[in-house]
Specification:
The protein has 437 residues and is α/β, with parallel strands linked by helices. The chain folds into 2 domains: 151 residues, Rossmann fold (3-Layer(aba) Sandwich); 229 residues, 3-Layer(aba) Sandwich (Rossmann fold), CATH 3.40.50.1100. 40% of the residues lie in helices and 16% in strands. It is built from 17 helices and 14 strands. The longest helix is centred in the first third of the chain and has 16 residues. The protein is globular. The chain starts with 30 loop residues before the first strand and ends with a helix. Bound molecules: pyridoxal-5'-phosphate (PLP). The site of pyridoxal-5'-phosphate has 21 residues, from helix 5, helix 11 and helix 15.
């Protein structure tokens, strides 16, 4: 911990208040200050209203025991609770207690299953017969395909062509679970286009189809509903931290793409004013923006975004001065999105959440550091949180929880390629992989 840190940490948070039930997180109107809302074509309004009604009945009021069944399936199929583990080497390195919330150990290898399982189950309760979803890194697609197979629902996943090439193992996993994978070739072939294509499908099939959105984005009720399904991360982490360490953490860290990992990890800590919340977004190759080319070589919409409307909600977006959405970039496909959830944008404006951008190089270093010091290979998305730890540990308090949102198996090919392209000081000798034996 830094000597210049002025926060009081003598008695960190040992008088942690007991928790209100998660269901009281509120925002039933889907408005977070200026952000959120329901900016959708008329054709989708009945589906959105039907979903808002189902969210209220089944998720908020546990009608027909929906939430009980959800929790039971998260435990038996998903493997919850995931552990909160002390990271011994990182604690020593940074001279602070570092704890890892191990969402990489959730079935499927990422936090995405919490939301996918919740929504596919909700679709069943609503009497829907078909599931559609979009995916960037493939983690949400994989989670949705697994949940759909588990609950016996036919499933179609839209995925940008470029992401298909970056995430081949995940595409195969979706197909193994019986889902159809539809390549999206418009635009840059990444998450933004995949979401637009899935919205188009939904507009034509709303009667019998549920669209499982993969993050806290989209029109109300998606942002609050996805947050509530993901909030199990912070419900567990908060209890585990109190049980293991006798108090609340001083800092909670999570990487942010659309923001479901972040809001899931923060939700139960938002009212704990002593806990600092750090949302780590992708700084890409630079935070500079090339307006003329319409390219932001980063995905730092909390840092560099301006207010606008995308995919059904008002939020912070990477856009040019004409309001055109810019191409984003990140070494990790799961963070490569030009927007962010409205709740996260709001909490940043309110000063409750601190946004920090970590660039591709620092993320790669974080990827190697967690792998070779703690024996945990993180997803490249997650690696940004460890890049943050290396760069900002002196600003943190004495007890830090970092969410390991996913494991890195899906990223091994990308990690070989990206490591080879740069001088990563803590990487192994790559010649065996790049030049042949
Ligand atoms: C492991 C992992 N972490 C984080 C993210 C970012 O998404 P979100 O911000 O919605 O959690 C993704 C997205 O695919 C992911 O796969």
């Amino acid at each position: 911990m830094s000597e210049t840190d002025t926060r009081t940490t003598e008695e960190p948070n040992d008088t942690a208040p007991s928790r209100r039930p998660g269901r009281e997180r509120g925002r039933d109107d889907g408005k977070f200050g200026r952000y959120g809302g329901q900016y959708v074509p008329e054709a989708l309004m009945p589906a959105i209203e039907e979903l808002a009604d189902a969210y209220g009945r089944y998720v908020l009021n546990n009608e027909d025991g929906f939430m009980d069944e959800f929790r039971e399936r998260l435990a038996d199929f998903g493997g919850r609770p995931t552990p909160l583990q002390r990271a011994d080497r990182l604690s020593e390195r940074y001279d602070t207690e570092v704890y890892l919330k191990r969402e990489d150990l959730l079935h499927g290898g990422a936090h995405k299953l919490n939301n996918a399982l919740g929504q596919v189950l909700l679709a069943k309760y609503m009497g829907k017969e078909r599931i559609i979803a979009e995916t960037g890194a493939g983690q949400h697609g994989t989670a949705t395909a697994m949940a759909a197979a588990h609950l016996d629902m036919p499933c179609t996943i839209y995925m940008g062509e470029r992401d298909i090439n970056r995430q081949r193992p995940n595409v195969f996993r979706m197909k193994l679970n019986g889902s159809e994978v539809k390549p999206v070739t418009t635009g840059r072939g990444t998450l933004k286009e995949a979401i637009s294509e899935t919205m188009r499908d939904w507009a034509e099939t709303v009667e019998d189809t549920h669209y499982v959105i993969g993050s806290i984005v989209g029109p109300h009720p998606f942002p609050v509903m996805v947050r509530d399904f993901q909030a199990v991360i912070s419900e567990e982490a908060r209890e585990q931290a109190i049980e293991k360490t006798g108090g609340l953490p001083t800092d909670v860290v999570a990487c942010a793409g659309g923001g479901s990992n972040t809001m899931g990890t923060f939700a139960e800590f938002v009212d704990d004013e002593s806990v600092a919340l750090h949302a780590v977004e992708a700084g890409g190759s630079t935070l500079e923006v090339d307006e003329a080319a319409g390219v932001a070589p980063n995905s730092a919409s909390l840092y560099a975004g301006e207010e606008g409307v995308l995919h059904g909600a008002r939020t912070k977006l990477l856009q040019d001065s004409d309001g055109q959405i810019m191409e984003s970039h990140s070494v990790s496909s799961g963070l490569d999105y030009a927007g962010v959830g409205p709740e996260l944008a709001y909490l940043v404006d309110e000063g409750r959440v601190s946004p920090v951008a970590v660039d591709d190089d620092a993320a790669l270093e974080g990827f190697h550091r967690l792998s070779n010091t703690e024996g945990i290979i993180p997803a490249l998305e997650t690696a940004h949180a460890f890049g943050f730890l290396e760069e900002h540990h002196e600003e943190l308090g004495e007890r830090v929880v970092v969410n390991v949102s996913g494991r890195g198996d899906k990223d091994l090919d990308a990690a070989i390629e990206e490591t080879d392209q740069r001088d990563v000081p803590n990487a192994p000798d790559m010649s065996m992989f790049t030049e042949g034996m």
